[in-house]
């Protein structure tokens, strides 16, 4: 099994949708662009929100177990994927990359 590096790459915020549809939140997404997490197999990295993990965990597992070219040639690095969380108000894009060390 390989570890997977998860890097927060870019966030979009839809203020118009938030204003019209979202109830005020005490603690919306607080992951900063550039933040790096390391996934050890199916275990959600500490500090990564559950919604983001739910959006990417299947892709992390594929990469962890040696899968590659998830998007049939779209990614320059076949051992990577670009995934966005499913937050419709402030989605974050994450780059998933295989780390060469095996998980023990």
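Q: What amino acid sequence fits the structure above?
A:
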């Amino acid at each position: 099994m390989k570890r997977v590096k998860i890097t927060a790459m870019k966030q979009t915020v839809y203020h118009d949708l938030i204003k019209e549809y979202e109830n005020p939140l005490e603690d919306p997404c607080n992951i900063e662009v550039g933040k790096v997490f390391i996934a050890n197999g199916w275990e959600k990295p500490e500090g990564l929100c559950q919604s983001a993990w739910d959006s990417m965990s299947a892709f992390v597992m594929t990469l962890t177990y040696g899968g590659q070219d998830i998007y049939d040639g779209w990614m320059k690095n076949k051992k990577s994927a670009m995934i966005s969380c499913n937050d419709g108000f402030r989605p974050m894009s994450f780059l998933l990359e295989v780390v060469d060390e095996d998980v023990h």
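Q: And what stands out in the fold?
A: The longest strand covers residues 92-102.
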